[in-house]
Write a structure and sequence with these properties.
alpha/beta, two-stranded parallel ribbon, binds iron/sulfur cluster
Length: 276
């Protein structure tokens, strides 16, 4: 099976691209995926989340081999990857008082919570499982990676690890676009023919981190709605409909904020107005 990196070498759709267009800002989508503009800054939460994922992946792979990682082992994996991920970022920015060292220390408590609340000992089917599926009607395949797939009796679940500044509200998992995209992908993959359960394992980035399991499941109707949304995004992108979402929640952290300020003076903006 190809890795996610290999699958990304070919033209494709990803959950995050669709989510950026639909739920964040279509202009941010354009800067990132179409114009491939240089990022002005990268919030430290991004490499932090990646390194946490890698550590959780290492632990899940160890469990599959019948071994449990200790907290120091897991923290070493995190620390190494966090440094590498930070070094690869453009203009890394930290929130007040944060640094690579303070975040590395914070991760120790979060990994401790992950180990203390780990519940998947004998049911892991796969870890870091890359997928590529054809959503009917889309011009490019949808690619992604399930963090972990587990099976309890007849029930298959996709598990996704998240780090979050605060506890998730009730109902957040039920509305989450990633769960819909990945459930659809799983249904479309060969031999499956069923919609899996989806579980987010959310570790809070707080003083006393907690790990909560948030379960959700999609219906066929949810997947049909996803399909139509994805087709609509593809069509809008072909027609270059990219507009600033002036009050988007992600403006504050946007890595293209300066370019966005100039947008109305650009040929891209004029193109939309001329076409209207
Ligand atoms: S600053 Fe806000 S409106 Fe502008 S591209 Fe970024 S997210 Fe979109």
């Amino acid at each position: 099976m190809a890795t996610l990196l290999e699958l990304r070498e070919e033209p494709h759709w990803s959950y995050s691209a669709l989510n950026t267009y639909l739920n964040m800002c279509s202009l941010k989508f354009a800067f990132q995926y179409v114009y491939k503009a240089e990022s002005e800054r990268t919030a430290a939460s991004l490499p932090f989340g990646r390194a946490f994922h890698i550590a959780a992946t290492h632990h899940a792979q160890s469990v599959m081999q019948g071994k449990r990682m200790t907290l120091p082992e897991l923290h070493d994996v995190f620390a190494q990857w966090f440094k590498l991920e930070c070094a690869a970022c453009t203009n890394l920015t930290f929130k007040n008082g944060e640094s690579i060292n303070s975040l590395t220390e914070q991760a120790r408590f979060m990994l401790d919570a992950l180990l203390a609340r780990w519940i998947d000992w004998n049911n892991i089917v796969s870890v870091a499982h890359a997928f590529k599926v054809q959503v009917p009607g889309l011009g490019k395949p949808l690619v992604g990676e399930y963090d972990m797939v587990i099976k309890d009796g007849e029930t298959t679940s996709i598990v996704d690890w998240k780090t979050s500044a605060a506890r998730w509200s009730e109902g957040k998992a039920g509305r989450d676009f990633q769960a819909t995209a990945f459930s659809f992908a799983y249904l479309l993959e060969e031999d499956h023919g069923m919609i899996p359960l989806f579980r987010f394992d959310v570790v809070t980035k707080t003083k006393n981190p907690s790990l909560e399991n948030h379960y959700t499941q999609r219906t066929k109707d949810d997947l049909y709605r996803f399909q139509l949304l994805a087709l609509a995004v593809e069509r809008a992108v072909k027609q270059e409909v990219f507009l600033p979402a002036e009050t988007s929640f992600c403006c504050g952290d946007c890595q293209f904020a300066s370019a966005c300020k100039e947008w109305h003076r650009s040929s891209a903006a004029k193109h939309i107005c001329m076409a209207a």
